[in-house]
Amino acid sequence: MATADFDELEDPLERLERNERQGTLATRYFVLSALAVVASIVLILVIVGGVGDDCSNVDGLCMTADRIEIVMIPTLLSLVLAVICGWKTYKVWSRHIRWRPWLFATYGMWMLTTACLLGTSTIAFVEVG
Question: Where do the TM regions start and end (predicted)?
Answer without folding.
Answer: 29-51, 71-90, 102-126
